[in-house]
Design a protein that fits this description.
The chain is of the alpha/beta class. The chain has six helices and nine strands, in the order H-H-E-E-H-E-H-E-H-E-E-H-E-E-E. The protein has a single domain, classed as Rossmann fold (3-Layer(aba) Sandwich). The strands form two sheets. Strands 5-4-3-6-7-8-9 form a seven-stranded mixed β-sheet. Strand 6, helix 6 and strand 7 form a beta-alpha-beta unit. The termini are far apart. The structure holds S-adenosyl-L-homocysteine (SAH). The site of S-adenosyl-L-homocysteine has 26 residues, from strand 2, helix 4 and strand 4.
Amino acid sequence: MAIIRNSQSGIGMTSLRTRERMLGRLREQGIKDEVVLSAISATPRHIFVDEALSIRAYEDVSLPIGFGQTISQPYIVARMSELLRNGNVLQKVLEIGTGCGYQTAVLSKLAQEVYSVERIRPLVMKARGHLRELKCANVKLDHADGNMGLSEVAPFDGIIVTAAASHIPQDLLEQLAINGRLIIPVGTEEQILHLVERVSQLEYRQTKLEAVKFVPLLGGTS
Ligand code: SAH
């Protein structure tokens, strides 16, 4: 039997109820920002994964997207978005590690302008297709090594890194606006989510948050 995929309204497994259950779980896990919760609720996650995996799209797990990479777990997307927003409307944000574009699509509902950088070219193409399908018009994607940030567009009031760095790249610190926030997983074996706030031109405040699990932030492009 052929199942016709209607990506926007969704078939049974992607129904409103399934998505509402996911939101309930996010609340239980401590996500409080209603703006973030409604952005997640309005972003169909099943269109970002292969059809064979779409039955698992609303589970709180990361899933493979090809090229050895993954789509982030809904909880971590919500958590990082909440930390980045900190209750404010965001103007210009930068994401490092677009992957299939799921976090990018959520960010497009939280910020005026979203820039996202990915080092694997076929993933940039894939993400571009998904973001076009969802009509995320305020997003610009770039095929580049995100370790350098995007100096031509800086400063950013938020930078989110969705791959684990061995250290915090200096370029990203420099591209933060005053009062801007950088959210970045740091570590190799054990990774800890870090929040870095730029307090003044020269002063940064760093807070270690929680243990996370991301693919590594690599160098160069492919
Ligand atoms: N934000 C994605 C997560 C994708 S996984 C989501 O919402 O699901 C992390 C991504 O970071 C991978 O696609 C990987 O290729 C990319 N990446 C790793 N190192 C990078 C770098 N230096 N510059 C840009 N992207 C990088």
